[in-house]
Amino acid sequence: MYRKLTLLTLSLVVVTLYNCTTNTIDEGDIEDLPPIVEVVTFDDDVEAIINTNCVGCHSGPNANAGLQLTGYANVRAAAEQGNLVNRINNGSNPMPPSGQLPPATRQIIDQWVADGYLEN
Are the beta carbons of 5 and 81 closer than 8 angstroms? Predict the structure, then answer.
């Protein structure tokens, strides 16, 4: 009886772990969205996205990959170097590692870059 219970428990654990994934539901792509017609600024649009999704790992003396994403100057430098934009738009190796940001969120950052990295 003990052996059957152990086997059943182990089977349930394996099935549960097999079904766990970090993949996200396909929400389409940025090209599928209507264009943003308003000017996008760091203070009004980008800062909250970065603080919510990036700063937890990319701040302080031990920032992951040495990439500081606290404040306008650091985020702009990361975007200008391509690190930020490339990683958030990378479907196979996204940032954050939990899964690619929704297309509308990535579109805001892409538009901020296209608008010239406006601060406010």
Answer: no
Cα 69 to chain centroid distance, Å, stands at 13
Q: 40 φ, ψ to 5°? A: -100, 130
Confidence at 32, pLDDT banded by 50, 70, 90:
confident
79-86 contacts, C-beta under 8 A, 24 or more apart: 79/109, 79/112, 79/113, 79/117, 80/117, 84/109, 85/109, 85/110, 85/113
Confidence label for 80 from pLDDT (cuts 50, 70 and 90): very high
Give the tens place of pLDDT for each residue, 34-66: 989 899 999 999 999 999 999 999 999 999 999
